[in-house]
Amino acid sequence: MQFLREFCGTLLLALILMFLVVTADFVLRLPASFTASAQDDTTTSTTAYLTIVNSGEADTLVSLSAAGTAEISIFQSTGAHAQEGILLNRHVRVEFAPGGAYFQLNDVSEPLYDGDVLNITLSFASGRSVTVPFDVLAAPPTERINFITLEDFQFTNAWVYSTGSAAALQSSAYEWHLPAGFPLPPVPADNPMTAEKVELGRYLFYDPRLSGNGTASCSSCHLQALAFTDGLALPLGSTGEIHPRNAMTLTNSAYSATLTWANPNLLVLERQIPIPMFGEFPIELGITGHEDEVLDRLRQDPLYQILFRAAYPDQTDAFTFANITRALASFTRTLISGNSAYDRYTQGDTTALSESAQRGMTLFFSEGLECHHCHTGFNFTLSTVTAHSTFQDRPFFNTGLYNLDGAGAYPSNNTGIFEITGNPEDMGRFRPPTLRNIALTAPYMHDGSMATLAEVIQFYADGGRIITDGEFAGDGTVNPYKSGLVSGFILTAQETADLIAFLESLTDEEFVTNPALSDPFAANAGVAVDGG
Asked: For 514-525, what is the mean pLDDT?
């Protein structure tokens, strides 16, 4: 019976593969070393993806290269949401259109021809590499998905051809309205900005139905009136769990070189956003274990039926967490602030800044205080990247906030990028946040341990913090890992007031009241919108 079952299974597999080869206008010819099975795919797209799923025992995939006449986007899955697509390493991409299949490499488009060969090389941390040849039989493809297993990795090749009108599948391009002097922010090629995705993301951002228990939304910790922070020292998750780090402002996060306080590996919003959605240590939105329930809540709403269809018109069922992530990322990229009194002053309005704020500006940019070394440029942070950046700096600094053991230790749940790198010199190193709207984002520091701007200025004037008693006692001024930029300075009471006046001039009132960034549910209900 076992032999009969295996024989029948093999026969069925052969028939399925034969069906694919016979009926599809475009297929991948599998090398003899591969085993394959076929499965229906109900998701349509105009992009071909190669999804890499690590079984848990394999080497870490470190790079992938493709040579030939196709372009591939690579995603790595590490858990239950494998197929949702966490971007690992995108090289090139296949574009399918009613006229055929095309590939782009270095901005040059060429057709995909019958008989072309695509060589995919995967390199692993152990040093081994695997090169897989694929023969292109014909173009264009039809909707088809093949699962291919190689050793302890599983590859999913989804080749989809749109038979509808190209115009019908296009969403409205997003029109940027950037402040004067602001460059375009970087946008991933696999998640282009569209007005429809931004609008969907706005609704999702403010919707508590996106949490596991339906009680919290992204906006719970990111209130517009507070420049998308929450006013708490430490935020609370949907289940009441306290997060160990202060809710960082989302102001100009489109330009952030890295996301969050202390992770040098989170470079794009599409990779950061799933963390509060699915993370369990601590729980924030708490979706894990409630995935189907959350999607069903959204799917049953007639408004979301319209919004998802508009944002992803080429998909049969657009209700996926991958699409939710893309929409949230698109909306978050629109949270751009650059119309403060300081901005108006630098653009020629000499009345925009008070005399006190002007004196404070001189102090801020002076070498005596050194503020501008970490908080520089149009976004007032060294951790900035634009669409035109050729080099991406990822700065993190230890400012001498703690020194628990006299040897540089920080509290065990807040050790900075040390918890990622394990490098002792990274102890207590955190990302410098933007100072835009800083007067609205108290309390301060990565753990919310300072209540006022005056307290922060005194901390830097002291060259670190001395805690005389309690569990965090220690002299941060002599922390061996402290940045040399935190050397201390002396200010008079008037100079401190002037510096605070300048920092307050970075507040953008238009940004924190902009209806386009506000809660659409409150607006639709006729309730006064305050961003909460």
From this structure: 85
